[in-house]
Write a structure and sequence with these properties.
641 residues, 20 strands, elongated, Rossmann fold, single chain, 38% helix, Nitrilase/N-carbamoyl-D-aminoacid amidohydrolase, 2 domains
């Protein structure tokens, strides 16, 4: 289970009603195939050894005896195969009949989990045959051994070779158990289970497929768990019903695999148990208060290097579907504007001051300010768009900044800071021919001083332009562009800034503004602090700190889930296959960790700004990190790659 990935298989064999020998052959064949393909959790449908549609044949002792014998055979066939497998069958216990999931691994029967919720409505009449199996597990005799029997069971992987012993905890429920208000899986999750399996025989009717799919997804989200669903299908009696044969594997609200309806065979998916555990650690309201009420059975797994077939989105902050992306942009843009609106209302300010460079970040900040002023019913002339040309300003960015500000109806003001900076160089004895960090940061701090003083002069506030990616990397001049009175972009990553500006361009009616915004999108990201070459931008940010696509990917998985460097590196190779090679990814991953740790002091004193997504670095919100934390532990991991 390297890096926490476990390969799961949901299986639907083609069966025959009440033909236990035939069904057992199908189960064994598909079981071997799934295990041979590396599956470590294998789930078969409800009552698969007999079929679900046996009706009153369930009361025949011959059928029950045959099912017990079939299970014994399957357990023996599992010897040498270290995979946790669930098989459905009817089981008589103390004179009552139960619909159970038998859990087995490596030649050992681990336990019987009975169905808790027995439906007896519409087409279902299970109470005619089966008894509820509620409560704690007790031991029953099966084939000469005492086997746990009961709903409250966990199956725990405790391999010495596993990176995090006990990291995988599996619980089972059966069909209707998923559809009730208080599901057995909920109790199991609150006892520590991070993967729930469901052995099902779900009837198909018009409209049910989408509902079932959403139910599995949302259950995995609500329980912060993996969910493996395997339903009966072809071969069940069609006397009155048709069964869906659908198989799904979900993880915390995301559907990893879906076979669709009316299929047989095996559906695979890799569940990231490490990610689930990280999410539960983060959620202080997720309480495993029932852990002591469950019986635990231990099984072992070979630690295989799971080949990932699931794909990781290279841009986790940006929805890939056009409609979803547009809706997300509209939502975030409104959140930015509402945050600024509240701040302006609270302090009674009627003006806002923004440094406009003609780049992406200041463009987004200006657009958010315009929206906030419109929501407040204030004149856009109260937005002072300040362009401050200096040594690195190009005609392209200057003209875009000016045109944009005027077109939006803001008050444009130009303040050339060259003389002020040259005077400062003279004061501190700096040679302007030396274009070092002092040369660059003097310009950034002069611009901030100008903005702050203009805000005082106009009775307004300085709206910051820096984004989340820059804060994570510390790519900001301390007390320069690092500082403002309200930072509207502070939790918007660079990869998303671009789409927000594009969204505004696509939805605005003004052709001039649209044209300018599209040119801003085509302009290289740059602080423009070094002199241009032949009139073009000479200082490109991504040449210095690395591609923002990579850094935003690193940021998401490091902060959102706490993944270790080697895992981030692995999934980054998966996500950026064909875009960045492994050497490039590792180079910038090392750079990210170094900058992230060394620049925390800048994030410890950032201005207020609205949180708009699941990752933020405000010291008052999401990130409580000491400024002098040592990166050695993470660097050690990086050096092994």
């Amino acid at each position: 289970m390297r890096d926490g990935f476990i390969k799961a298989a949901a299986v639907t064999p083609k069966i025959r009603v009440a033909d236990v020998d035939y069904n057992t052959e199908q189960v064994i064949s598909l079981y071997r195939e799934a295990a041979g393909n590396g599956a470590k959790i294998i789930v078969f449908p409800e009552l698969v050894l007999t079929s679900y549609t046996c009706g009153d044949l369930f009361l025949q002792s011959s059928l029950l005896k045959k099912a017990r014998a079939a299970l014994k055979r399957i357990v023996k066939q599992s010897a040498g195969i270290k995979a946790l497998t669930f098989v459905g069958l009817p089981l008589e216990v103390d004179g009552k009949l139960y619909n159970v999931a038998a859990a087995l691994s490596d030649g050992e029967l681990l336990g019987f989990v009975p169905k808790v919720n027995i439906p007896n409505y519409s087409e279902y009449y299970e109470r005619r045959h089966f008894t509820e199996g509620t409560g704690p597990a007790r031991e029953i005799l099966f084939d000469g051994d005492l086997i746990p029997f009961g709903a409250h069971q966990l199956f725990i992987c405790d391999s010495e070779e596993e990176q995090v012993p006990g990291g995988l905890k599996v619980a089972a429920e059966i069909c209707e158990d998923l559809w009730v208000a208080d599901t057995p899986g909920t109790l199991a999750a609150l006892a520590g289970a991070n993967v729930i399996v469901n052995l099902s025989a779900s009837v198909e009717v018009a409209g049910k497929t989408a509902y079932r799919r959403n139910l599995v997804k949302m259950t995995s989200a609500r329980l912060v768990s993996g969910y493996i669903y395997a339903s009966a299908g072809e071969g069940e009696s069609s006397q009155d019903l048709v069964f869906c044969g659908q198989r799904m594997i979900a993880e915390n609200g995301a559907l990893l695999a879906d076979s669709g309806r009316f299929t047989t065979g095996i559906t695979y998916g890799e569940i990231d148990v490490d990610r689930l555990r990280a999410e539960r650690r983060r959620l202080t309201t997720y309480d495993t208060k029932f852990a002591g009420e469950f019986t635990s059975s231990i099984f072992d797994l070979n630690v295989d290097d799971v080949k990932l077939t699931r794909r990781f989105d290279p841009r986790p902050f940006v929805p890939s579907a056009f409609d979803d992306r547009r809706a997300r942009c509209e939502e975030i843009f409104l959140l930015q504007a509402l945050g600024l609106k509240k701040r302006l209302e609270h302090i009674g300010a009627k003006t806002a001051v923004i440094g406009i460079s003609g780049g992406l970040d200041s463009t987004l900040a200006l657009l958010a300010a315009v929206k906030a002023f419109d929501l407040l019913g204030l004149d856009r002339k109260g937005i002072y768009a300040i362009t401050m040309p200096a040594f690195g300003t190009t005609d392209r960015t200057y003209n875009n900044a000016c045109t944009m500000s005027v077109t939006l109806g803001c008050t444009l003001k130009e303040i050339n800071i060259k003389n002020a900076v040259m005077g400062h160089f003279s004061d501190i004895g700096h040679d302007p021919e030396v274009t070092d960090v002092t040369y660059e940061n003097s310009q950034a701090r002069e611009r901030t001083q100008v903005l702050m003083d203009l805000a005082n002069q106009t009775g307004g506030i300085v709206v910051g332009t820096g984004d989340l990616s820059e804060l994570a990397l510390g790519w900001a001049t301390y007390n320069g562009d690092h500082m403002s009175m309200y930072a509207v972009n502070s939790s918007v990553p660079k990869t998303l800034v671009r789409h927000l500006v594009r969204y505004y361009a696509d939805t605005c009616d003004d052709k001039t503004l649209q044209s300018v915004l599209m040119d801003v999108l085509d302009t290289p990201v740059s602080p423009e602090l070094l002199p241009p070459k032949d009139g073009e931008i000479s200082q490109k940010t991504e040449d210095l700190v690395g591609p923002y696509e990579l850094h935003d990917f690193f940021l998401y998985y490091i902060l959102r889930f706490g993944f270790a460097p080697h895992k981030v590196y692995r999934i980054a190779q998966n996500a950026f296959e064909g875009e960045f090679d492994a050497e490039t990814i590792l180079k910038w991953l090392k750079k990210f960790y170094w900058r992230f740790f060394s620049q925390q002091y800048k994030r410890s004193c950032v201005p207020d700004g609205p949180k708009v997504g699941s990752v933020a670095v405000s010291p008052r919100g999401d990130l409580r990190m000491p400024s002098d934390a040592v990166c050695a532990l993470w660097q050690e991991d990086l050096e092994t790659l």
